Amino acid sequence: MIGNGLSPSIVTYSALINGYCLLGRMEDAIRILQDMTGKGLSPDVLSYSTIINGFWRHQELESAFRMKLEMMDKGVSPDAVAYSSLIQGVCQQRRLGESCDLFQEMLSMGMPPDEFTYTTLINAYCVEGDLNKALHLNDEIIQK
């Protein structure tokens, strides 16, 4: 691409980041993110959310949280994909209180949860034996 006189765009870099994340090559995904910045491009929400999702899929949840902080430090707000990945991760580790905090943070940012987020939380409440809260969330979905 560069040999043909073309410069990679954010879309191109995001595709590379996604590919590395799918392969579990998270260090390479981070390197691409850093290359973007070094070339004067500002990573967008898709770039960061893809990496957060990749960290979650490869059980590197603390790295996912660090990436969330980094993106927010750079003025990029997490999207539903980032929040859903983090919520799924903490629920898998049975950190239900933390998942509720993330859910509330998501709502306070005016971000409507999707079906995936609700389902994750409902399952987590069921695993913890709190059927009342699971049913409450289910009712919330029905009302929307």
Account of the 3D structure:
- With 144 residues, the chain is mostly helical.
- It has two domains: 1-78; 79-144, Serine Threonine Protein Phosphatase 5, Tetratricopeptide repeat, CATH 1.25.40.
- 72% of the residues lie in helices and 0% in strands.
- The chain contains eight helices and no strands.
- It has helices at residues 10-22, 26-38, 45-57, 61-73, 80-92, 96-108, 115-127, 131-143.
- α4 packs antiparallel against α5 (80-92) and α6 (96-108) packs antiparallel against α7 (115-127).
- The mean pLDDT is 90.
Give the structure's gist in a few sentences.
By secondary structure, the chain is an all-alpha fold. Helix content is 72%, strand content 0%. This is Pentatricopeptide repeat-containing protein.
Provide the fold topology.
Blueprint: H1 10-22, H2 26-38, H3 45-57, H4 61-73, H5 80-92, H6 96-108, H7 115-127, H8 131-143
GO molecular function: mRNA binding
Organism: Prunus yedoensis var. nudiflora
Keywords: Repeat
The class by helix and strand makeup works out as: mainly alpha
Report the end-to-end length measured between terminal Cα atoms: 47 Å
Q: Which sheet architecture does the biggest sheet show?
A: none
Quickly count the domains.
Answer: 2
Give the amount of beta strand, in percent. Answer: under 5%
Summarize the amount of helix as a percent range. over 70%
Number of strands: 0
Secondary-structure element order, N to C: HHHHHHHH
Low-confidence stretches: none
Q: What coarse outline follows from CA principal-axis ratios?
A: elongated
**What's the mean pLDDT score?**
90
| Distinct helical segment count | 8
Integer-rounded radius of gyration: 17 Å
